[in-house]
Specification:
This protein has eleven helices and six strands. With 304 residues, the protein is α+β, with helices and mostly antiparallel strands. It has a single domain, classed as endopeptidase fold (from Nostoc punctiforme), CATH 3.90.1720. The chain is elongated and about 110 Å long.
Length: 304
């Protein structure tokens, strides 16, 4: 019995050392993957105020990220979007250092599920995807599910999950989705969209349709795979037939004539006034003939 106890204790000690070692390696890899890429500039940055006014609870905010893992996810999914967050509205007792309330729920590598302020993504290219026809009660259920998972952490001991993002080798298109989940018992720990997909699944709201007939066998296989939440990617909300793409610039009213162009020195108001057509001169009703006239001839009299 004593020998058995010693063996068990030694095994536990060895397992504990190994667990701490893997956890430390995992943190180093996660830190590298989360490191920003220098020189990033969004092609079309968001309008902060328009974005704030447009978002509603239940909206999915897609982000064009700028860290090392973002480039790999964009390559594997062939998409602009590398990250997604769920807008839930103001979260009680959660605020930034400057007092700005947290309104987003997201899953980040190395952090797990956290809340964040909207200003975190003001400098990034973003897109709003809004579920169509989602009831108020179901919207509340989706947001509650996501908020209840704040604090859930990634399992950094699963090195395979992190290592595969360090080697973005060319991958055939049909394998790209598989690579995102390769070697992981819980792939949603690395794919931020899985948390949001699971939240919508609680109220049976679809993200991608169930396809029964397709022109190619490859497309059918892909659609059937991504129905599992662990394989959802940010772009899936963009291409979903059940989510509207909401553009704040258009939603809040857009007038191209009010834009300030670098190659035009005049202000929009002055330019509009200059380009407006001149009003026609008033015409006396007595000068209008009752019948068409031929040049050089007098119009014939009209007999009542």
């Amino acid at each position: 019995m004593q020998g058995t106890r010693r063996g068990a204790t030694a095994h536990d000690l060895t397992g504990g050392h190994m667990s701490r070692m893997l956890d430390g390696i995992g943190r180093l890899i996660a830190r590298y993957l989360d490191r920003p890429v220098h020189g990033y500039e969004p092609f079309t940055p968001s309008d902060p105020e328009a974005l704030r006014q447009t978002l509603e609870p239940g909206d999915v905010l897609l982000v064009e990220g700028n860290n090392n893992i973002s480039g790999v996810i964009k390559y594997l999914t062939q998409s602009t979007w590398s990250h997604s967050a769920l807008y839930v509205g103001r979260i009680a007792d959660q605020a930034a250092a400057d007092g700005e309330p947290h309104v987003l729920i997201e899953a980040n590598i190395g952090e797990g599920v956290v809340s964040a302020p909207l200003s975190k993504y003001f400098r990034f290219h973003t897109r709003i995807c809004r579920p169509v026809g989602l009831t108020e009660a179901d919207c509340a259920a989706v947001c509650t599910y996501a908020m209840a998972r704040i604090g859930f952490a990634y399992d950094l001991k699963n090195i395979i999950d992190l290592m595969r993002y360090l080697f973005p080798v060319p991958v055939p298109q049909r394998w790209r989705r598989r690579l995102i989940a390769l070697g992981s018992g819980d792939p949603s720990r690395l794919i931020c969209s899985a948390l949001i997909a699971e939240a919508f699944a609680t109220v049976h709201y679809p993200i991608l349709p169930k396809v029964t007939l397709t022109r190619s066998r490859q497309a059918l296989e892909q659609i059937l795979e991504i129905r599992h939440s662990s394989l959802y990617c940010p772009r899936d909300f963009d291409i979903s037939p059940y989510f509207n793409v909401v553009k704040p610039t258009i939603a809040n009213g857009f007038d191209y004539r009010a834009l300030h162009w670098a190659d035009m020195s005049q202000a929009p108001a002055d330019r509009a006034e200059r380009q407006a057509p001149a009003a026609p001169a008033p015409v006396d009703a007595a000068d209008i003939p009752l019948a068409p006239q031929v040049a050089g001839r007098k119009a014939p009299a009209v007999v009542a």
